[in-house]
Amino acid sequence: MQALHFLQALARIARAAPKPAHSARTRQIRHAAYASMAHSSRSSRRTWSRALLHRLRQRQQQRPGRLLTVRRRVRIVTPITSRPEEPARAETLRQLVPGGRGMEYCNLLEETADYVQCLRAQVQLMQTLLDAFSS
Amino acid sequence: MSRRRSRISEEEINELISKLQSLVPESRRCGSNRASATKLLKETCNYIKSLQREVDDLSDRLSDLMAGMDNNSAQADIIRSLLSS
């Protein structure tokens, strides 16, 4: 399902007229990649996939060309400094996995495993497409 | 809102750590002590970053491919017919 969603998104990008600039198209493809990951049936119930979709929608609503949000709305979640029982590096992981900041440590590990699997599948899919269409 | 202290067992954490170990390359180490958990988290962070970089790179190359399609009509027709739903 991840593959199908991505292929459909690629088809829409390919059909777009007028043809976008290279950098704009790269951004659209990247957006489609992450959207496909979030929509895959395995992960649609996951916290990371909902957080990722929310982030993607926020980016789409901004002026095109801006990749980072300038103003960040601060949500008060469990204070990050009060997690001494976690190993070091858990905080970095929380920043990498979408929605990671608010998760319990156990959930973070589970979500990370799922996120990594989806990322890997997406990379393999894109590589396969490139190989198929480049030869 | 009081912080919920869920009783997650050491065993469950270890299980998840094993799962991550199996997913992340170069992290096939035994033991689930705190030091190796830290190392595994570090490897996982690096792995996620490298996968995200790959997505960026592959997006760029796919974009090149599509740009090439504009110029090569025979190839473009084949690709379009495959992608069209």
UniProtKB/TrEMBL annotation, chain A:
InterPro entries for this protein: bHLH_AtIBH1-like, IBH1-like, IBH1_N
Residue intervals of the IBH1-like N-terminal domain: 5-59
GO cellular component: nucleus
Record's protein name: Transcription factor IBH1
A Gene Ontology biological process term: regulation of DNA-templated transcription
Keyword list, A-Z: Nucleus, Transcription, Transcription regulation
Protein localization: Nucleus
Automatic annotation (TrEMBL), chain B:
Keyword tags: Coiled coil, Growth regulation, Transcription, Transcription regulation
Gene Ontology molecular function terms on file: protein dimerization activity
Residue ranges the record marks as coiled coil: 41-68
Listed GO biological process terms: regulation of DNA-templated transcription; regulation of growth
All copies of domain BHLH, residue ranges: 1-51
Record-linked InterPro entries: bHLH_dom, HLH_DNA-bd_sf, PRE
PANTHER family recorded: TRANSCRIPTION FACTOR PRE (PTHR46446), TRANSCRIPTION FACTOR PRE5 (PTHR46446:SF28)
Family classification: Belongs to the bHLH protein family.
The name this protein goes by in its record: Transcription factor ILI5
UniProt organism field: Rhynchospora pubera
